[in-house]
Recover the amino acids of this structure.
C-alpha cells in the first residue's frame, strides 16, 4: 500500500497515474460524547482507507492513500467544546482542489472514504461527484459509493454520534483513546436525527442529547468494530470495481 504520509516523491513513481486509484480519508474534528476523542471520524476514515487500499491491491489494483482531511462540516455538535467546522463552500473548494491537483499528475480515479456522515458534508460530497462524474483521458472521476455495508451493528441515524458503531470501531482501532469505563456507564440515547433536527433544532444538544452522543456506546465491542471496518473496506472496493472495471 502506498501512503503519501511518510513517502518521498521518488517513491511515488509508477504509483500515481491514470491506472491508480487515489483514496481520500475524510473525517472531522467534532465531539463524540464524553468517551471518544474529537478526531474519532478522522481516525476511522484513515483506517478504512488503508484497509480499502489493501483490498484493492489484493485484486491487483494500484492505489494510494492521501493524508486524511481532518476538518469537515461539523455543526450538529457545535454546542460542545472542541468542535471545528468548515463552511460548505470551503469543503467544496478543498475537495475540488484535490481533484484538480491530482488530475495534473495523471490520476483519473479518486475515491472518497468519508466517516463523518453529517448531512451537509454528505450533500457537498454527493454534488461534487456529480460535477466530477466523467473519467476521460484528461479528467479525473470522483467516487463516493452510496450506503454503508449491510452489517451489524448497522449505521443508523439513531447511532450517529459516538454510539455503538463508532465506539466499536474505535475500540478496534485505538482502544487507548476510548474511555471505556465511561462508555459502559452511558445510557442509550434513542433519537432519530433526521426527524429531530429541523426548524430551530440545529444541534444534537437541542434535540435532547445532553452528553453529546446518540445511540448505545455501552453495547460496543472491538470485535464488532473490526468486522464492520473490514466489511466497509470490502464494500468500497466493490464500488471501485463497479465504477472502474477496466482496472481490475
Amino acid at each position: 500500500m502506498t501512503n503519501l504520509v511518510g513517502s518521498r516523491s521518488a517513491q511515488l513513481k509508477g504509483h500515481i497515474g491514470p491506472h491508480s486509484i487515489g483514496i481520500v480519508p475524510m473525517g472531522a474534528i467534532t465531539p463524540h460524547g464524553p468517551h471518544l476523542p474529537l478526531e474519532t471520524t478522522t481516525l476511522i476514515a484513515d483506517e478504512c482507507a488503508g484497509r480499502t487500499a489493501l483490498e484493492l491491491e489484493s485484486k491487483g489494483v494500484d492505489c494510494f492513500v492521501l493524508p486524511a482531511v481532518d476538518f469537515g462540516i461539523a455543526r450538529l455538535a457545535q454546542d460542545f467544546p472542541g468542535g471545528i467546522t468548515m463552511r460548505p463552500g470551503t469543503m467544496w473548494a478543498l475537495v475540488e482542489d484535490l481533484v484538480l491537483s491530482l488530475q495534473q499528475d495523471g490520476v483519473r480515479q479518486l475515491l472518497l472514504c468519508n466517516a463523518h456522515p453529517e448531512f451537509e458534508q454528505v450533500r457537498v460530497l454527493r454534488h461534487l461527484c456529480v460535477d466530477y462524474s466523467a473519467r476521460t483521458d484528461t479528467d479525473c472521476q470522483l467516487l463516493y459509493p452510496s450506503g454503508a455495508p449491510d452489517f451489524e451493528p448497522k449505521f443508523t441515524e439513531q447511532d450517529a454520534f459516538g454510539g455503538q458503531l463508532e465506539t466499536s470501531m474505535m475500540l478496534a482501532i485505538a482502544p487507548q483513546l476510548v474511555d471505556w469505563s465511561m462508555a459502559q456507564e452511558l445510557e442509550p440515547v434513542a433519537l432519530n436525527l433526521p426527524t429531530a433536527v429541523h426548524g430551530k433544532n440545529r444541534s444534537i444538544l437541542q434535540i435532547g442529547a445532553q452528553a453529546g452522543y446518540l445511540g448505545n456506546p455501552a453495547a460496543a465491542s472491538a470485535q464488532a468494530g473490526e468486522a464492520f471496518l473490514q466489511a466497509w473496506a470490502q464494500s468500497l472496493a466493490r464500488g471501485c470495481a463497479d465504477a472502474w472495471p477496466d482496472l481490475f
Strands lie at 2-3, 20-26, 62-65, 109-114, 141-143. The first helix runs from residue 40 to 58. The CA atoms of residues 19 and 246 lie 9 Å apart.
